[in-house]
């Protein structure tokens, strides 16, 4: 993969030039402190090290500037005669040839390594981003498949217990399909009537069994229906003859919303 931005690994702005000037000044001060011990020996070493450090942290252009200014300072201050550039002798020629060649070689290698490092970081970031996208898509696919399976399970549940269904309630009526649509879908798979089509109210579809439930119990589950077991009063024979019946409420999380299905546990 061709990564053009790998050439722009170095930081931008004036801070890198301030750092380069500080490195050049520090190199000159350190070499001046060591001058009584070293004399004319290795006059450009401190500036070479400064140029390499500037290259590593600030980029190629500041490093080249440090190298050129360091060459001038080294030749003027630390090559005899000190403080004068009257005659170019063998010492000057040795510094003018060896110092630039060695410095350019080292900072070129550092520049190449830094570009390769930055290119590897960019590729790693792209790979990480693509990996996260794949994970996200995979998770979305699994969630959609799970919701579809849950919807199929709900339809099979409705078709299986169609004779004992009491009601179907949508937990979020604003963002869910009408519960009656699921009942109608299940009705196409079974010949039995499942729902009173005129009994849809506030995200609730009343099934045929609800007519046998006591009105107080029905009003209670309309508001406080939760998954689990419920004991409700069913009409038995005469008008005022009520018998308790265990009911079961199941919860289904589908792609069309969350629903509670209440049935009599016959």
Automatic annotation (TrEMBL):
Mind naming one GO cellular-component term on file for this protein? membrane
What residues does the Sensor protein KdpD transmembrane domain cover?
17-120
UniProt keyword Transcription, yes or no: no
Location(s) in or outside the cell: Membrane
Q: Name one GO biological process term.
A: phosphorelay signal transduction system
Membrane-topology annotation of the record:
Multi-pass membrane protein
GO terms assigned for molecular function: ATP binding; kinase activity
Q: Report keywords, A-Z.
A: ATP-binding, Kinase, Membrane, Nucleotide-binding, Phosphoprotein, Transferase, Transmembrane, Transmembrane helix, Two-component regulatory system
Parts of the chain that traverse the membrane:
17-34, 46-79, 91-110
UniProt-listed InterPro entries: KdpD_sf, KdpD_TM
Q: Could you identify this protein by its name? A: Sensor protein KdpD transmembrane domain-containing protein
Query: What taxonomic ancestry is recorded?
Result: Bacteria, Pseudomonadati, Pseudomonadota, Betaproteobacteria, Burkholderiales
């Amino acid at each position: 993969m061709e990564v053009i931005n790998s050439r722009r690994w170095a930081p931008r702005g004036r801070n890198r030039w301030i750092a380069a000037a500080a490195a050049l000044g520090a190199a000159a001060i350190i070499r001046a402190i060591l001058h009584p011990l070293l004399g004319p020996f290795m006059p450009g070493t401190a500036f070479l090290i400064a140029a390499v450090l500037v290259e590593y942290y600030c980029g190629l252009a500041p490093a080249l500037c440090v190298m050129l200014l360091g060459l001038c300072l080294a030749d003027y201050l630390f090559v005899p005669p000190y403080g004068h550039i009257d005659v170019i002798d063998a010492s000057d020629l040795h510094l003018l040839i060896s110092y630039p060649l060695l410095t350019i070689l080292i900072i070129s290698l550092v520049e190449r390594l830094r570009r390769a490092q930055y290119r590897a970081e960019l590729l790693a970031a792209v790979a990480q981003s693509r990996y996260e996208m794949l994970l996200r898509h995979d998770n979305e696919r699994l969630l959609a498949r799970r919701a579809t399976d849950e919807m199929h399970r709900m339809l099979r549940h409705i078709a299986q217990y169609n004779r004992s269904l009491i009601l179907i309630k949508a937990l979020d009526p604003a963002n869910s399909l009408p519960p009656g649509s699921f009942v109608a879908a299940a009705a196409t798979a079974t010949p039995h009537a499942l729902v009173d089509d005129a009994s849809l109210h506030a995200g609730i579809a009343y099934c045929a069994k609800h007519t046998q439930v006591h009105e107080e119990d029905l009003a209670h589950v309309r508001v406080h229906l939760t998954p689990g077991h419920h004991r409700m009063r069913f009409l038995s024979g005469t008008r005022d003859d009520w018998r308790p019946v265990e009911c079961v409420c199941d919860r289904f999380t589908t792609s069309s919303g969350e629903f509670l299905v209440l049935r009599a546990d016959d």
